[in-house]
Specification:
Layout: E1 5-9, H1 17-29, E2 32-35, H2 55-65, E3 68-74, H3 82-89, H4 93-96, H5 99-103, E4 109-116, H6 127-135, E5 139-147
């Protein structure tokens, strides 16, 4: 696959700060983009009644096409966005009802882009991403935070940790 990368956007707005940042990065770095708002993904359900939503087909496609998954989320109340959290909760399906699909995440790489109106955020914000990657046997490459108020899409964005 030659380390093909995809940015998975989890924002409540299609034209907000997160999307603007991701659009600039994807055009500079030639990364594919998946916007979670384009899919119908239900909350995690212990009885797996939501098997027919878009989550499993989307994950199978991501696993097949990409080596590096980059999660992009605004910071809402000191945490990832709700849509991103729902997506992450559904990873439970990959260890309960779709184990073969879940096993294919091993060896893949993970990174995170976050944004808010602050220059820095607490290191602990990234704990769910780091720990999930570790649990699933994925390599956590790192993270990059953007201050949406100071972001300039014309500047060269440094993402050396993704190489």
């Amino acid at each position: 696959m030659n380390n093909k990368k995809v940015i998975i956007v989890g924002s409540s707005r299609n034209n907000g700060n997160t999307t603007n940042i991701v659009d600039a990065i994807s055009s500079q770095c030639n990364f594919d983009v998946i916007n979670l708002k384009d899919y119908q993904i239900s909350y995690y359900d212990y009885e797996s009644k939501n098997r027919n939503d878009d989550f499993l087909p989307l994950m199978k496609s991501i696993i097949e096409k990409y080596d590096t998954l980059i999660f992009a989320t605004p910071i809402y109340w000191y945490s990832m966005s709700g849509i991103m959290k729902v997506f992450f909760d559904r990873f439970s399906d990959l260890i309960r009802i779709e184990k073969e699909t879940g096993r294919q995440l091993r060896g893949k790489k993970v990174a995170v882009f976050s944004n808010s109106h602050d220059d820095e955020i607490d290191y602990d914000f990234y704990t769910p991403f780091r720990k999930s990657a570790e649990y699933l046997g994925m390599e956590y490459l790192g993270d990059k935070h953007f201050n949406a108020d100071e972001f300039n899409k014309d500047n060269k964005i440094q993402l050396d940790f993704l190489n």
